[in-house]
């Protein structure tokens, strides 16, 4: 593992152990076994390091979005959505501690917004891509013509985020039926109506 990767891994560990507010560059450098000067050689600002943790260490939704888009017209829409929703729940579970810390600190939030703009990213992207998937399925007749793909995408992603947030606050027990239940409820509004 190279120095940069070691620093990013150490930053993730320190953030998980101490929280974002207490994750200082000194603590991160110590955990990485390097000096703060070396840390700043790889990351010009603390915000850059936090973004690297979020983009590189948290399971991304990009592979799940890619798989979803490759399945337009293939398999069952419900199964495709269940796989995507499960990836979204895992993503939110892992990213919530970092995201909450960024949102809570105005200077970090400002820098984070700029960095997301620079890379063309943001939390709206998976919702938009999920909506695009549902529009394509709608075009193929696998989603009802009266369904609102963007609203459905927002509802599903919001429910996945909500579950991760609740899990951070209370023990909800196993979630074996969570994703099938969410998607099942959503499919009731998305399914094409059979003609009588």
Automatic annotation (TrEMBL):
It comes from the Bacteria. PROSITE patterns: HTH_TETR_2 (PS50977). Residues 24-43 bind DNA. InterPro entries: Homeodomain-like_sf (IPR009057), HTH-type_TetR-like_transc_reg (IPR050109), HTH_TetR (IPR001647), Tet_transcr_reg_TetR-rel_C_sf (IPR036271). Pfam families: TetR_N. Keywords: DNA-binding, Transcription, Transcription regulation. Residues 1-61 form the HTH tetR-type domain. GO terms for molecular function: DNA-binding transcription factor activity; transcription cis-regulatory region binding. The keyword Transcription regulation applies. This is TetR family transcriptional regulator. The gene is rutR.
């Amino acid at each position: 593992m190279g120095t940069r990767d070691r620093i990013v891994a150490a930053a993730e560990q320190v953030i998980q152990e101490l929280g974002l507010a207490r994750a200082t560059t000194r603590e991160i450098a110590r955990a990485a076994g390097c000096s703060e000067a070396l840390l700043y050689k790889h990351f010009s600002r603390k915000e850059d390091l936090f973004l690297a943790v979020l983009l590189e260490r948290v399971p991304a939704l990009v592979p799940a979005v890619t798989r979803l888009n490759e399945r337009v017209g293939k398999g069952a829409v419900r199964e495709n959505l269940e796989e995507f929703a499960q990836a979204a729940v895992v993503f939110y579970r892992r990213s919530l501690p970092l995201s909450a810390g960024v949102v809570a600190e105005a200077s970090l939030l400002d820098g984070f917004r700029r960095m997301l703009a620079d890379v063309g990213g943001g939390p709206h992207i998976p919702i938009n891509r999920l909506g695009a998937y549902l529009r394509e399925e709608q075009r193929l007749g696998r989603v009802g013509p009266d369904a609102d793909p963007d609203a459905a995408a927002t509802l599903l992603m919001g429910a996945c985020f909500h579950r991760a947030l609740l899990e951070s606050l209370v023990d909800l027990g196993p979630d074996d039926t969570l994703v099938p239940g969410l998607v099942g409820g959503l499919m009731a509004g998305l399914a094409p109506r059979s003609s009588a």
